[in-house]
C-alpha cells in the first residue's frame, strides 16, 4: 500500500514536469517547481548568503562587478535584462554564482584568478549561463525524481525483506543516484554553461579567448581535485581545449559587438 501511494506521488510529479530543449539542443526535464517559485528560492538563498556575509565594502570593486554584470545581462532576451542584483562577498575563495530571479554573487577571491575584465566576464557569464539554461529548474526536478524513486525502492524492499533491507536499499540507491545520475548531469550543465557563457561574453564585447586564460589561471591556483567521474565539473584540460575551440569560432561575434559599440570599460 505504501509503495502504491509513493508510486502515485511520483506519477503526479512526472505529469507536472515537462520536456524541453536546452540552448545546446540537449533534452531537459524541468517543471517540478514554477518559475515564480524558482525566483523566490533564488531570492531567499541570495538574501541568506548576504546575511551571512561578510560583504565587501570596496566601492571600486563593487562597481567593477556591477559593470560586468550589466554588460552581460544586456545581451539576454528583453524580458530577462532588468532587475539583476549583484553582491560582492569578502571571501578569499575564488568563486561566484548566479541564481534564478536575477541574482549574482562574486567572492573577492575571484580577482586572484580573473585578472582583467574579460576574465571576470567569463566567470560571471558562465554563472548566468546556468540560469539561462534552466539548470536550477532541471536539477531540482532531477533530485525530486531521484528521491521519489528511492522511496519506492525502499518501500518495496522493506515490504518484502523487512525495514532494515528497505533502509539499506535507500542508502545504497542514494550513492548510485548521486554518482550515476545527479553528478553526471551536473557535468553536462557545467559544459553547457561554458557554451552559453562564452557566447554571452562575446556578444557583450568581452574577448571570449580570455575564458581560456581564466581556466589556465584556475589550474595554476588550484590544488587537488576529485576524480572526473566523481566531480561536478569537467576535467580542466578537456575544458580548456573546448574553450579554445569555441573562442576561435566566437571571435567574429566579439568583433561585431565591438564594431557595434559594445566596448565595456569596467576596470
UniProtKB/TrEMBL annotation:
Q: Name one GO molecular function term.
A: metalloendopeptidase activity
Signal peptide range equals 1-18
Keyword list (alphabetical) reads:
Hydrolase, Metal-binding, Metalloprotease, Protease, Signal, Zinc
Required co-factor(s) are:
Zn(2+)
Q: Cite the InterPro entries for this sequence.
A: Mito/Outer_Membr_Metalloprot, Peptidase_M48
Source species, domain of life: Bacteria
The GO cellular component terms are: membrane
Q: Name one Pfam family in it.
A: Peptidase_M48
State how the cofactor is bound. Binds 1 zinc ion per subunit.
Locate the Peptidase M48 domain: which residues?
60-246
Under CDD domains, the record lists: M48C_Oma1_like (cd07331)
Tell me the GO BP annotations in alphabetical order: proteolysis involved in protein catabolic process
Q: Is DNA-binding one of the keywords?
A: no
Query: What is the similarity comment for this entry?
Result: Belongs to the peptidase M48 family.
Task: Write the protein's name.
Answer: Peptidase M48-like protein
**Species:** Luteimonas cucumeris
Amino acid at each position: 500500500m505504501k509503495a502504491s501511494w509513493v508510486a502515485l506521488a511520483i506519477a503526479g510529479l512526472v505529469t507536472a514536469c515537462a520536456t524541453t530543449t536546452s540552448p545546446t539542443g540537449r533534452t531537459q526535464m524541468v517543471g517540478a517547481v514554477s518559475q515564480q517559485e524558482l525566483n523566490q528560492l533564488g531570492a531567499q538563498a541570495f538574501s541568506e548568503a548576504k546575511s551571512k556575509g561578510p560583504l565587501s565594502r570596496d566601492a571600486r570593486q563593487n562597481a567593477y562587478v556591477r559593470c560586468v554584470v550589466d554588460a552581460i545581462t544586456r545581451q539576454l532576451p528583453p524580458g530577462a535584462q532588468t532587475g539583476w542584483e549583484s553582491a560582492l562577498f569578502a571571501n578569499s575563495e575564488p568563486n561566484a554564482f548566479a541564481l534564478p530571479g536575477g541574482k549574482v554573487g562574486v567572492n573577492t577571491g575571484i580577482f586572484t584568478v580573473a585578472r582583467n575584465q574579460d576574465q571576470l566576464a567569463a566567470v560571471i557569464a558562465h554563472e548566468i549561463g546556468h540560469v539561462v539554461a534552466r539548470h536550477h529548474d532541471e536539477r531540482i526536478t532531477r533530485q525530486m525524481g531521484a528521491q521519489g524513486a528511492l522511496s519506492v525502492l525502499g518501500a518495496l524492499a522493506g515490504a518484502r525483506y523487512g525495514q532494515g533491507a528497505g533502509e539499506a536499499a535507500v542508502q545504497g540507491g542514494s550513492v548510485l543516484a548521486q554518482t550515476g545520475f545527479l553528478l553526471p548531469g551536473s557535468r553536462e550543465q557545467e559544459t553547457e554553461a561554458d557554451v552559453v557563457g562564452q557566447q554571452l561574453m562575446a556578444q557583450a564585447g568581452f574577448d571570449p579567448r580570455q575564458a581560456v586564460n581564466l581556466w589556465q589561471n584556475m589550474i595554476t591556483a588550484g590544488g587537488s581535485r576529485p576524480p572526473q567521474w566523481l566531480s561536478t565539473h569537467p576535467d580542466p584540460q578537456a575544458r580548456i581545449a573546448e574553450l579554445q575551440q569555441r573562442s576561435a569560432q566566437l571571435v567574429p561575434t566579439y568583433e561585431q559587438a565591438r564594431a557595434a559599440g559594445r566596448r565595456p570599460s569596467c576596470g
